[in-house]
Every structure is written in structure tokens, then in C-alpha cells.
Design a protein that fits this description.
By secondary structure, the protein is mainly alpha-helical. Helix content is 63%, strand content 0%. The protein contains 14 helices and no strands. Bound molecules: zinc ion (2 copies).
């Protein structure tokens, strides 16, 4: 874990900060890019923004928290969307913490598909939430308050960096959106929740398609996460970057995410 953290710090220093600053500057000049969550119709409370600001500072690497997130498949749909906003707002395009978290989740998903493909009940149980979203359990919702400074909260809910990432990688993540999250009755790229909904303890529907989907995302996340290491600098692609959006959509659902992308 220490190596991952030091790798993150090292790479963040080494990678071109000028590039990120330039991208953010260009995005902020675009009048179509809203300055905050309020403009998107998806309002984040002060308490939620503050919690996630604290989370991305280091709690994400805490073994207890990581174990919880593994059992909950990340955050719920609402809090996963807030997490992506706050992480982008503070880390611009350097989402190494999120890459490590979702790489871990997808390696587990991949393992479950490999190990339990022939045992529907076991696969179904492993892919289900075995713990509640940590933020929901702690009582955070759209009304949560905070004593964080106005500056911290304002910056945390700035959508500029997320919108920039979203538009730059949209050709890739749009192909991964769950059709049932879009309101259709069926689809080929189902998120985890809709995949479970369509399956049962007796029969898994669309097993091979889901296995391929998870394998693809795990591979992209490994490449994305690795691109933050000094020895793999400049190897990241837009397709790798898009995988962080697709991974959050698969684990938690696309509903809230699509409101802010
Ligand atoms: Zn939640
Ligand atoms: Zn879905």
C-alpha cells in the first residue's frame, strides 16, 4: 500500500501539471460547462462534499474502509457520482486513488466470474452488496451539513474537471452505459445491479457477455492504474481513462452519473 501511495505522489509530481492546468483552463472557458453541481440538477450537500474531500486525502487507502467498499461494491449510485465529482475537482485528471480502488473491485469481479460461473447462487451472492454504502450508513444525504470552509466546499463541487474528462473520453465510456439504466427493458451492457436483477440464484442470464464486459474493464483499469507509475508514464490512453467512469457506472449504476457527465 505504501508503494502505491508513494508511486501516486511521485507520478503526480512527475507528470505534466501544465497539461492538466491547460485542460482545466480550456474547459472553464467553455460556457456550456457549468461551474457547479447546482447547474446540473444534481445537488450535493455540504456534508457529502466534505466527507469525500476527507476520503480522497487518505481514507481511501485505509484497509478497513477498503474492505467495506469491497463488500459494498463501492458507494451507492448517488455517493459514487459525488465521489467522482470531488475526486476530479481536487485531483484534476490524476484519479490514481479511484483507479486503485476500482482495479481492486474489478479484479474481484473477474475472479468471481471465473470461479463461480457454474454455480449461479454463489456468483449471485458474491456480486450482490454484502454491506451498505459507507456514506449512507454514516447518515450522509442531500441535507447533510458541514463546517468545512466555503472555499473547500466550492472547489469540491466544481464540475469543470469532470466535464472535461467526460467529453474527452465519451467515445469510449458511452459504449459501456447500461441500457436498462437508460430505461430500456433489456440490454447487452448491463450494470451489476441490473445484471443481478435479470438473473436469479438458479439461472444467470447473459453470463458470457457480462464476463467479457468485466474482463475488458478490469484490463483497462489495470492499464490506467499502472500509467501513474513512473516507469509506465505516458502509456495511458483515453480508453484507459474512460474505464474509471464505466467502472463506477457498472458497480453503482448510471442514473446519477449521467446527470453530471
Ligand atoms: Zn450512499
Ligand atoms: Zn443498470
Amino acid at each position: 500500500m505504501k508503494t502505491e501511495l508513494s508511486g501516486l505522489i511521485m507520478t503526480n509530481r512527475k507528470r505534466s501539471k501544465r497539461e492538466a492546468a491547460e485542460l482545466s483552463k480550456q474547459a472553464s472557458k467553455n460556457p456550456e460547462v457549468p461551474a457547479s453541481d447546482v447547474d446540473s440538477g444534481f445537488t450535493m450537500s455540504d456534508g457529502e462534499v466534505h466527507y469525500l474531500w476527507y476520503f480522497i486525502q487518505g481514507s481511501i487507502m485505509d484497509p478497513f474502509t477498503r474492505h467495506w467498499l469491497r463488500r459494498a461494491w463501492g458507494f451507492c449510485e448517488r455517493h459514487a457520482a459525488v465521489y467522482l465529482v470531488v475526486d476530479c475537482a481536487y485531483h484534476q485528471i490524476y484519479l490514481h486513488g479511484a483507479a486503485i480502488l476500482y482495479e481492486d473491485l474489478f479484479l474481484h469481479a473477474q475472479l468471481y466470474f471465473k470461479r463461480y460461473s457454474m454455480v449461479p447462487v454463489a456468483l449471485h451472492m458474491r456480486l450482490s452488496n454484502r454491506r451498505k454504502c459507507p456514506m449512507c450508513e454514516l447518515g450522509y444525504d442531500e441535507k447533510s451539513r458541514s463546517f468545512a470552509t466555503e472555499e473547500t466546499l466550492k472547489r469540491g463541487r466544481d464540475l469543470t474537471n469532470l466535464r472535461e474528462l467526460s467529453s474527452r473520453t465519451s467515445v469510449h465510456w458511452k459504449q459501456q452505459v447500461c441500457e436498462m439504466c437508460l430505461g430500456k427493458n433489456e440490454g447487452q451492457h448491463l450494470c451489476r445491479q441490473h445484471f443481478l436483477h435479470e438473473s436469479s440464484y438458479i439461472q444467470i442470464k447473459g453470463l458470457e457477455l457480462q464476463r467479457q464486459h468485466v474482463t475488458y474493464l478490469a484490463d483497462q483499469l489495470i492499464r490506467y492504474s499502472r500509467s501513474f507509475q513512473w516507469e509506465y508514464r505516458d502509456t495511458g490512453t483515453l480508453e484507459n481513462e474512460a474505464s474509471i467512469i464505466s467502472a463506477i457506472g457498472w458497480c453503482s449504476g448510471w442514473g446519477h452519473l449521467l446527470k453530471i457527465l
